[in-house]
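thought: user wants a sequence for this fold. calling inverse folding tool.
action: design(structure=
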């Protein structure tokens, strides 16, 4: 009767865990999210933190219109990473999300459904529909943001159309009025004829436009003055030539500007004389088709001498003067610029200096008013052709060509804008020194990246006054009363604003339109004043978040620590927030400003539905999970353009699996480990375990520093490399034998488990701000008592303290690792050639130079465990024969032979002592010790 062979499998400490290998994030994340929401995790995090140690981030409000796109996801994930990392650092870090709800985009959506306000429905009904539409959009976006794993006060966001918020917007306006920054004037502003409204600087984008570029003569009225100015004997009919790409602005012309310091030439051509800048004569004459022999320069003068020379308008019975303007350059044209103060900021400034009339013949629809001679009723861009024909017929057109150039467009309609002077309300950059104060405040802010400071400084230094009035129906009203004749503000404007704000706080913005004048001012004044009917610029609404949220919410204060938005917000929210805060409180609303770039496809192209390259967050979440999208954000240098595509996300998913599988290995090998009873004292830990814990401690210092500096790419790279290299390719590989075969509760195994426990405790926190769902899932499987969520903890600080230094430091183990890598290459060749089946069939001899010999010999008989071979010995390099394989490591040669010893059925090592103990057939004495005695002794690995 045969005796059954013993099965030693059950004697091994095989890893086991219920933590799933397959992530199934799309299915698993919603349950984790629901647990967070049902358990009030966000509130619990705040309650655990001391409000006196706070980190405050103001959320820039997305517009409540349409599904979120990949840019929304990027922005909110970055903010969430910051807030969660700060909470793990022990900060009280509330995150109050917000939405921008007023303005044109919502009006346009509502118009599609119920028609224009004042046409098909009354304004009050229209506003209510706008409010209902925005509410529905907020709910859609909020659900999407939650699904991204963003922890925030979702039940109490700030919403710019909430009555209380609208009231605070009006109060903010009141403070700015009180501080003297608000002015009214007929000034040229960017005007969109499709919006029927003035636009803010941030609502303007520059795109190519093909225009008519023309050279036009303005005849000199008194040609006798030309002789004196240019010191020529006599002069024939003379003109100053202007060049423009906006012929439609010529009806509003009031002057021609030259630069006082430039030189101008008097040119004789075709029996008449023309004046242009000397440096532009050649290019100008080329446009006329003339060669050098066709014209003659009669004389020259500086622009200063041309000042106040009178000219005849080319098609109106109007004389205009030559004026001086520093904005006139030699970039193109003739060095002479026609001035229409109603149609350009620089024209307006120059016109104010010379008291020129601000004649705006263009109505809100972009058409010349009916009284405009020759062109009344015509749409301005269509009027270019008739104007050119008129110039041609009068003999004043010298050249006309088509020119493609950069031109301001409406960011919504993508249509060209016009500059148009209309009565508007402005926050003045100069009246009370706002520009100077804002430039000073910029220097008190930390700009990340640093170039942000120069960018916003340049924008503030050169920007015009901030036009805050809009001709819209849906928005926060400019709650002002002005005198019907003088347009002066009521002397008790501050009191009126507070009264209106109190009404709005109870009934919303409709209260402004409903309230009677005699409820705001004495009845005897009611006939003298009228309400301003304009709405506030929506950039003002969002710009005063510092006053409406940071100054009002009990968990917040101003200035906050951080604003974090896309780099386009230097001309948008960063700027409107800065100007309003400085105008109200004399300081910036933020201490730091961090910007990210825009998302593009794999080829660097802008995403658009027409190109079919849009990556929708919802689809990514449904297929790969939110954590993969979050990892993509961290794994990309967000300060530049962020490339995203299905292929890029697939690679990100592969990286995610590496991190997840590493965590699973840690958890599986911590099976049965109780940190309260099984932790090995630092002085008892094996050298390799000590080294890997020290590596984790060093990495944590880098990780925490990178979170502090918002360098999330470094965190991703270093944590991924740690999982892949130090852990995956070395440490976890080496300790498998010790984990599986050593005595379950012996020092060698418990030492490794102690190291794994410390690493797991640290790793789960490192990844938590980025891989939030996965980290919280890992947290539930870690041994030991702990809080319900990783987000209720702080960075791991319970690393063991090693009192005695060791010679087996990082430099030592890096050398061993390098040698091991080279040995593995030799083993791989042996396997591929059929000499070996696995590394445990190998017996190695390492021939080392003196330095390497000293290093490798310290491992003694545990070298084979590091190299994962059945036997490994060291010999001097001088003893290496011709059969030794040279490696890529100087001073190391290797000989591999196949072991002739029997294979241990338990540990699979091949040694001479296998099958020596009759009570434990077919296993080695090391395994016998681990089964029957106190277990083997290990020191190094």
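)
observation: tool returned 941 residues.
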């Amino acid at each position: 009767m045969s005796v059954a062979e013993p099965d030693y499998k059950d004697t091994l400490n095989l890893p086991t865990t219920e933590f799933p290998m397959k992530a199934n994030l799309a299915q698993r994340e919603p349950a984790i999210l629901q647990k967070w929401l049902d358990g009030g995790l966000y509130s619990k995090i705040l309650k655990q933190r001391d409000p006196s140690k706070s980190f405050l981030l103001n959320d820039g409000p997305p517009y409540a219109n349409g599904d979120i796109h990949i840019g929304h996801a990027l922005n909110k994930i970055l903010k969430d990473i910051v807030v969660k990392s700060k909470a793990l650092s022990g900060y009280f870090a509330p995150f109050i999300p917000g939405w921008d709800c007023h303005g044109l985009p919502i009006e346009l959506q509502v118009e599609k459904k119920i028609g224009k306000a004042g046409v098909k429905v009354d304004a009050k009904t229209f506003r209510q529909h706008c409010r209902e539409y925005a509410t529905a959009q907020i709910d859609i976006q909020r659900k999407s943001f939650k699904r991204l794993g963003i922890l925030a006060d979702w039940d109490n966001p700030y919403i710019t159309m909430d009555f209380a918020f609208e009231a605070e917007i009006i109060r903010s306006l009141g403070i700015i009025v009180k501080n003297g920054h608000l002015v009214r004037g007929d000034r040229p502003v960017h005007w969109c004829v499709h919006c029927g409204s003035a636009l803010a600087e941030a609502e303007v984008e520059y795109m190519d436009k093909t225009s008519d570029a023309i050279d036009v003569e303005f005849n000199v009225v008194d040609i006798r003055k030309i002789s004196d100015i240019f010191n020529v004997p006599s002069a024939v009919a003379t003109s100053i030539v202007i060049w423009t790409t906006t012929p439609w602005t010529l009806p509003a012309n009031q002057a021609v500007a030259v630069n006082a310091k430039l030189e101008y030439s008097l040119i004789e051509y075709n029996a008449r004389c023309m004046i242009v800048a000397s440096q532009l004569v050649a290019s100008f004459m080329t446009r006329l088709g003339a060669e050098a022999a066709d014209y003659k320069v009669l004389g020259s003068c500086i622009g200063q001498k041309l000042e106040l020379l009178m000219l005849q308008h080319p098609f109106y019975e109007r004389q205009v003067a030559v004026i001086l303007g520093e904005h006139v350059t030699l970039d193109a044209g003739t060095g002479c610029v026609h001035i229409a103060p109603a149609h350009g900021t620089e024209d307006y400034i120059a016109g104010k200096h010379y008291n020129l009339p601000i004649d705006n013949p263009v109505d809100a629809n972009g058409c010349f008013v009916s009284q405009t001679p020759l062109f009344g009723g015509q749409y301005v861009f269509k009027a270019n052709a008739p104007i050119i024909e008129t110039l041609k017929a009068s003999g004043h057109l010298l050249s006309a060509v088509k020119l493609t150039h950069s031109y301001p467009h409406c960011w919504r309609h993508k249509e060209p804008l016009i500059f148009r002077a209309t009565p508007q309300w402005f926050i003045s950059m100069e009246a009370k020194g706002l520009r100077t104060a804002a430039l000073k405040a910029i220097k008190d802010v930390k700009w990340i990246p640093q170039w942000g400071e120069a960018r916003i400084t340049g924008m503030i230094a050169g920007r015009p006054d901030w036009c805050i009035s809009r001709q819209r129906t849906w928005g926060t009203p400019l709650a002002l009363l002005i005198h019907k004749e003088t347009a002066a503000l009521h002397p008790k404007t501050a009191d009126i604003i507070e009264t209106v704000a109190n009404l709005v706080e109870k009934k919303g913005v409709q209260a402004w339109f409903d309230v009677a004048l005699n409820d705001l001012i004495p009845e005897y004044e009611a006939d003298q004043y009228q309400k301003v009917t304009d709405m506030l610029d929506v950039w003002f609404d969002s710009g005063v978040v510092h006053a409406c949220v940071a100054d009002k919410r009990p968990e917040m204060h101003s200035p906050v620590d951080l604003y974090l938005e896309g780099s386009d917000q230097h001309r948008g929210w960063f700027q409107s927030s800065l100007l309003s805060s400085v105008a109200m409180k004399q300081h910036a609303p933020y201490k730091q400003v961090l910007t990210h770039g825009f998302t593009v496809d794999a080829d660097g192209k802008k995403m658009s539905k027409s190109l079919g390259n849009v990556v929708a967050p919802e689809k990514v979440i449904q297929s790969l999970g939110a954590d993969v999208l979050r990892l993509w954000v961290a794994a990309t240098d967000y300060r530049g353009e962020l490339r995203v595509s299905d292929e890029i996300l697939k690679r990100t998913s592969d990286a995610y699996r590496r991190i997840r599988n590493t965590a699973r290995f840690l958890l599986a090998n911590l099976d049965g480990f109780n940190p309260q009873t099984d932790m090995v004292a630092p002085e008892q830990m094996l050298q390799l375990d000590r080294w890997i814990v020290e590596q984790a401690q060093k990495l944590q210092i880098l990780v925490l520093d990178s979170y502090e500096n918002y360098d999330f790419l470094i965190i991703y790279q270093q944590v991924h490399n740690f999982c892949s290299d130090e852990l995956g390719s070395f440490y976890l590989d080496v300790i498998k034998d010790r984990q599986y075969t050593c005595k379950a509760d012996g020092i060698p195994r418990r030492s490794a488990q102690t190291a794994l426990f410390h690493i797991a405790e640290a790793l789960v926190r490192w990844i938590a701000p980025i891989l939030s769902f996965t980290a919280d899932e890992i947290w539930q499987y870690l041994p030991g008592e702990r809080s319900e969520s990783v987000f209720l903890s702080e960075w791991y600080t319970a690393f063991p303290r090693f009192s005695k230094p060791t010679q087996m430091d990082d430099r030592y183990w890096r050398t061993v690792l390098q040698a091991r890598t080279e040995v593995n290459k030799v083993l791989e060749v042996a396997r591929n050639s059929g000499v070996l089946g696995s590394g445990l069939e190998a017996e190695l001899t390492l021939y080392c130079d003196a330095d390497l010999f000293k290093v490798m010999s310290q491992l003694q008989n545990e070298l084979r465990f590091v190299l994962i071979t059945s036997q490994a010995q060291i010999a001097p390099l001088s003893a290496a024969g011709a059969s030794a394989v040279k490696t890529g490591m100087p001073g190391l040669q290797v000989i591999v032979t196949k072991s002739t010893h029997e294979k241990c059925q338990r540990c699979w090592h091949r040694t001479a002592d296998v099958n020596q103990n009759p009570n434990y057939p077919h296993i080695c004495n090391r395994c016998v010790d681990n089964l029957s005695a106190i277990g083997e002794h290990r020191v190094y690995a």
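thought: summarizing for user.
answer: Here is the designed sequence. The longest helix spans residues 712-741.
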